[in-house]
Amino acid sequence: MMEKETAVTPTHHVRSWYGLSAEIGVENNLWHLVRVGQVALPHPPAVNLALRRGQPRQERLYLSFLHEFGHLQTLPVAVLHALWLLANGRWRRRGFWGTLAAVVAHEAVWEMASESYVLIKAKGEYGRIYRRHPNLAGRFAFWSVMFSLAFYLTRWLAGKNEG
Ligand SMILES: [Zn+2]
């Protein structure tokens, strides 16, 4: 178990559809890294832990790699959401909690965008893996938590309900 968890897979050199190059390292099954130039973006393990629970190493690494690549590929979606918040949100008026909510909502949107990318990219393979290793609780937790955070925080920040 320890042996497996510390194993490091080779770094993948990838290029996004909009031309940005990056390196992706799916390390020790838990912490993943997307490196764009000199900027390293470590990915928290919680998401892949929840989504890939009970899957064999190979499947886990495959889907986790696609998820990290998904972050790169869907970066424009995350940027658009952030710009929209900046333009429409009242988060600045809400001080610390507003800023925190904006960051969390932004992350939640990006997580859903990345996993949607995995779904689209792995297509039949995604379904096969999850049929063999059903992880309903983990998937339900991911989508419901991320959707709720993204939806309710964005709505709160947009100030549609209150002043
Ligand atoms: Zn992610």
The order of strands across the largest sheet is 1-2-3-4
Which ligands are bound? zinc ion
Please count the helical segments. Answer: 6
The secondary-structure class comes to: alpha+beta
Structure summary:
The protein is α+β, with helices and mostly antiparallel strands.
Give the arrangement of secondary structure elements.
Layout: H1 2-6, E1 12-15, E2 21-26, E3 32-36, E4 39-43, H2 45-51, H3 57-73, H4 75-88, H5 95-132, H6 136-158
Helix pairs in contact: 2-6, 3-5, 4-5, 5-6
This protein binds zinc ion.
Written overview of the protein:
- The protein is of the alpha+beta class.
- It has a domain at 46-158.
- It is 64% helix and 12% strand.
- The chain is built from 6 helices and 4 strands, in the order αββββααααα.
- It has helices spanning 2-6, 45-51, 57-73, 75-88, 95-132, 136-158; strands at 12-15, 21-26, 32-36, 39-43.
- It has a 4-stranded antiparallel beta sheet, covered by helices on one side.
- A hairpin with a 5-residue loop joins strand 2 (21-26) and strand 3.
- Helix 4 (75-88) packs antiparallel against helix 5 (95-132).
- The protein is globular, with a radius of gyration of 17 Å.
- The chain starts with a helix and ends in a 5-residue tail after the last helix.
- The protein binds zinc ion.
- Zinc ion binds at residues 43, 47, 67, 71, 111, 114.
- Residues 43, 47, 67, 71, 111, 114 line the site of zinc ion.
Key terms:
163 residues; binds zinc ion; globular; four-stranded antiparallel β-sheet; alpha+beta
